[in-house]
Design brief:
four-stranded antiparallel β-sheet, elongated, 2 domains, alpha+beta
């Protein structure tokens, strides 16, 4: 019997929005050594490190809620299961996939299809790499609106939201003041932790 100790890890980069893939050997995790899987854009990475003799920890910044998530992965699961998946605890979207190469890529594909279905069900037309980002932004905007923390400087809280392929446009229904938030800006800022959003007229 030939035992394969090579594994593939994949995650969605919170910076560029693409799926990052990396290969490693279980032997690389011996002792206190950790494995870093870095996105090709160079702006993010996922760390797999020994937690104790029976478990590894998997940590990364989440594209959905911007928090750093840390998951515990049993050693036996890594050696026996074709693909281990971890999801954002705040929004059930797959974040991490670790296992044998083909199984990981198949799981990523299934998750991408699921995400597209969720985004389409929310009425969004664009389901590309910015789809999850826009879904996250809409959730935050709804939260701000519910708490009366989204309004225009004219005093109106009637704000129209238009989702486009690469950005989000918020426009006051009363005076027409608008702001445009790009997908990159939403990903690379502290957007999910905003306490208030005010539309201001350009001087």
């Amino acid at each position: 019997m030939v035992i394969n100790f090579d594994r593939t890890a994949a995650y969605r980069c919170p910076s560029c929005g693409e799926i990052a893939y990396g290969d490693f050997s279980i032997f690389e995790l011996s002792g206190t050594k950790a494995v870093s899987i870095q996105c090709a854009c160079g702006q993010s990475n996922m760390i797999i490190a020994p937690e104790n003799k029976n478990n590894f920890s998997v940590s990364l910044q989440c594209i959905v809620c911007d928090e750093v998530h840390k998951f515990s992965m049993p050693f036996q699961l890594l050696t026996k299961k074709d693909c281990i998946e971890f999801a954002c605890p705040n929004v059930v979207v797959g974040l991490v996939f670790i296992g044998r190469n083909e199984a990981v890529r198949n799981s990523v594909l299934r998750n991408e299809q699921y995400v597209e279905e969720v985004i389409a069900a929310c009425g969004l037309e664009h389901t590309g790499k910015n789809g999850v980002t826009m879904l996250k932004a809409l959730d935050k905007i709804q939260d701000l609106s519910d708490n009366e923390n989204l309004y225009c400087e004219c005093g109106s809280n009637m704000i129209d939201v238009e989702v486009r392929e690469n950005d989000l446009v918020l426009e006051c229904c009363q005076c027409g003041t608008s702001i445009t938030l790009s997908a990159d800006a939403i990903r690379n800022s502290d957007f999910s932790h905003l306490e208030k959003l005010i539309l201001k007229r350009k001087k």
